[in-house]
Every structure is written in C-alpha cells, then in structure tokens.
Automatic annotation (TrEMBL):
GO cellular component, one term: fungal-type vacuole
UniProt GO MF annotations: glucan 1,4-alpha-glucosidase activity
Keywords per UniProt: Carbohydrate metabolism, Glycoprotein, Glycosidase, Hydrolase, Polysaccharide degradation, Signal
Entry-linked PROSITE patterns: GLUCOAMYLASE (PS00820)
Record's signal peptide: none
Catalysed reaction equations from the record: Hydrolysis of terminal (1->4)-linked alpha-D-glucose residues successively from non-reducing ends of the chains with release of beta-D-glucose
One matching Pfam family: Glyco_hydro_15
Enzyme class: hydrolase
Protein name as annotated: glucan 1,4-alpha-glucosidase
One GO-annotated biological process of the protein: polysaccharide catabolic process
Homology family: Belongs to the glycosyl hydrolase 15 family.
Gene3D superfamilies linked: 1.50.10.10
Length: 163
C-alpha cells in the first residue's frame, strides 16, 4: 500500500527537490533570497532518505536521487564556509554576517544517531557545525547588539535566540 499510495507523493516531492535544489529561493525565515544552508542540508537528507525508502519499497527514486552526491558535495564545499563558520545564506544581496540559527537547526534536523561526526550530512558534532555554533553564540555576547548578555562571563550561559 505504501508503494502504491504514499510513494508517488514522495517521489513527486523528490523529483522537485532533485530538479531545483541548486536554485535560489528564500531561507527558512522567508527573509533572505539566496541559497540557504538549512535548505541545502534538508534537501540532501531528503534525497538520501528518499533513495533508501525507494529501495525498501522495491522501487526506484529515479534521476532525482541521483542528484544527492552533487547536493552533498555543494553542502560540504567551501561555498557555505568562510573558514570560521557556516554562512547561513549565500548568493544574496545582503551585508549580513552569515551567522544565523539556521545552521544550528540544520545540524539538528539532519541528526542521525548512526552517522559519524564527519558525515556529509553535517551532524551536530561535525567540526564545522561546532565551530559555527561557537561563532553564533559568541555573536550574542556583543553588548552593543544584545545588552541582555552584558557582563556575563564567557564561562556562563547567555540568552540566545532568533533575533
């Protein structure tokens, strides 16, 4: 039943993802037009898991899932990495720092208990994910931007959030 009823719906979504993964769009907050780290990470996981599901259902994912290696390569390239942290959105017309919760949310959404820290899915324990998390938290320590955290020692927790 899953193969006949559910799979066609999933396959349609995977076909769209496989065809348009490298197109710009809006980030998950719908604020920035460009290429979103979170979105690319979610697309990669969807294509990988779609191929696995197709195999379990004894069917094929088709050309859509064949795009997974290209998505994974792009995700792990330096396109989203500036040497210190993941850049939340690229190919934009903004002057933002690139530090954003979407890189942390992406790592959490991609979490796989069986994956290694160096997995191409960029797990929360991946060195680049950890570096990005530290850079993002440290940005919240700036008292000019976030006075709520002023005077809190670096070894203590601070308030962080979306804005």
């Amino acid at each position: 039943e899953a193969r006949d009823i559910v799979w066609p719906v999933i396959a349609n979504d995977l076909a769209y993802t496989g065809q348009y993964w490298n197109s710009t769009g809006f980030d998950l907050w719908e604020e920035v037009s460009g290429s979103s780290f979170f979105t690319t990470q979610a697309q990669y996981r969807a294509l990988i898991e779609g191929a696995e599901l197709a195999e379990r259902l004894n069917t094929t994912c088709g050309p859509a899932c064949d795009e997974a290696p290209a998505v994974g390569c792009f995700l792990n390239s330096d396109s989203y990495w500036n040497g210190r942290h993941h850049i939340a959105n690229i190919n934009t017309n903004t002057q933002r720092s690139g530090k954003d919760a979407n890189t942390m949310l992406g790592a959490n959404a991609a979490f796989d208990i069986a994956a290694s820290c160096d997995s191409a899915t960029i797990q929360p324990c991946h060195p680049r994910a950890l570096a990005s998390f530290k850079q993002w938290v440290d940005a919240w320590r700036d008292p000019a931007e976030y006075p709520i955290n002023e005077g809190i020692p670096s070894n203590e927790g601070i308030a962080i959030g979306r804005y």
